[in-house]
Specification:
The protein folds into 2 domains: 251 residues, TIM Barrel (Alpha-Beta Barrel); 72 residues, Arc Repressor Mutant, subunit A (Orthogonal Bundle), CATH 1.10.10.920. 40% of the residues lie in helices and 21% in strands. The protein is globular and about 60 Å long.
Length: 383
């Protein structure tokens, strides 16, 4: 048995959806006709097998994502959460999140969620424009969002985050501003705001290739990002990570596990994890995922042992996504090296181009650097 891991977070993937959105390339399948009950039991078996190999003394955050976890029936949700709370050390969990779709949450499901100590909900809203919601293949309406939030409020769950997507086909800057204003008016503690990324094997990608839909120009996309930053900061939200905004103290603890480059378990079909300097990924297709588990084998399809060099690269391009940037002291403590010496060839250039600044013993992106993040991150890759 390996040493007991310190305070390791968990990501748990539920790949089922009642409806597949046109832009989504996450590992997901249409719920109907799937072996959902066997999947839940397989998932719990994977958690047990993993903990036998890599036990942990605490699980600081647990995040159940998808797919749509709330597309499970109330009984299935109960089985899943009952198993998770028996296997993982949930008494140590500070933030226990489940993703939900507007319109999927019922009082019965909320009772179950609260019963097992889930204290944070993340909801995929994407836009408050019903025309655009139809265009991107969402099945909910703006009215469903308000009704679901009313139900959540009645159940006294305070820690709620919503996702918004900009640069949608046919979306103008004015459309996006309206969505932003409606989102801010809800006065929620947390917002995640992403640009639409065209992914292979999605309906959107096929349609763009055939000229069936047009996406906003890159310049408009940049304006929408700037608008999001300005409106959110004006409303008192901290832009604590490239795509995330929060009221002080409500930052997502689970997201920060990723950006702080800490270890975490990845459970479920297509999930990825990071343990003992090794990144791993599970089989995506449901039967490919379940087959090894039927034989008490872990469903891992690929592993990558990170070299010392890889670990440093990841520390930088994940850490620079945070508003506070990368702590030079923490970097030295973790790697035994001075960051400024290690990158003395490239830092002056990034400073002179005003893409990076050095402040409070942290290296961080400037406002200009935020818009050119990928170009900055590439500079930190060792050739």
């Amino acid at each position: 048995m390996e040493k007991v891991l310190q305070n390791t977070s968990s990501y748990i993937h539920i790949p089922f959806c009642e409806h597949i959105c046109f832009y989504c390339n996450f590992n997901k399948v249409f719920l109907k006709g799937q072996p959902v009950d066997e999947y839940i039991q397989g998932l719990l078996k994977e958690i047990q097998l993993t903990l036998d190999l890599h036990p942990t003394d605490a699980s600081q955050t647990i995040y159940i994502g998808g797919g749509t976890p709330t597309s499970l029936s109330a009984n299935q949700l109960d089985d899943l959460l009952s198993g998770i709370t028996q296997l993982l050390p949930v008494e140590t969990t500070k933030e226990f999140t489940i993703e939900a779709n507007p319109g999927d949450l019922t009082q019965e499901k909320l009772d179950i969620i609260k019963n097992y100590g889930i204290n944070r909900l993340s909801m995929g809203v994407q836009t408050f424009d019903n025309r655009l919601l139809r265009r991107i293949g969402r099945k909910h309406t703006a009215e469903d969002v308000y009704q679901t939030l009313k139900l959540i409020e009645k159940n006294q769950i305070d820690n709620v985050s919503i996702d918004l997507i900009y640069a949608l086909p046919g979306q103008s800057i004015a459309d996006f501003l309206t969505t932003l204003q409606k989102a801010i008016a809800l006065d929620l503690p947390h917002y995640a705001i992403y640009s639409l990324i065209l992914e292979n094997k999605t309906m959107f990608m096929n349609w763009v290739r055939r000229g069936r839909i047009e996406l906003p120009e890159q310049e408009d996309e940049a304006k929408m990002f700037e608008l999001a930053i300005n409106e959110m900061e004006k409303a008192g939200f901290s832009h604590y990570e490239v795509s995330n905004f929060a009221k002080k103290g409500w930052e997502s603890k689970h997201n920060l596990v990723y950006w702080n480059n800490e270890h975490y378990y990845g459970f479920g079909a297509g999930a990825s994890g990071y343990l003992n300097q090794q990144r791993y990924k599970n089989f995506g297709p449901i039967q490919h995922y379940l087959n090894p588990l039927r034989n008490n084998q872990l469903p891992i399809i690929e592993t990558e042992n990170l070299s010392f060099k890889n670990q440093i690269e990841e520390e930088l391009f994940l850490g620079l996504r945070k508003k506070e940037g990368v702590s030079l002291d923490h970097f030295k403590e973790k790697f035994g090296l001075e960051l400024t010496e290690l990158y003395q060839q490239i830092l002056p250039e990034l400073f002179s181009e005003q893409l990076l600044i050095y402040k409070d013993n942290h290296l961080k992106l400037t406002r200009k650097g935020l818009f050119l993040g990928n170009e900055v991150f590439e500079k930190f890759l060792f050739s």
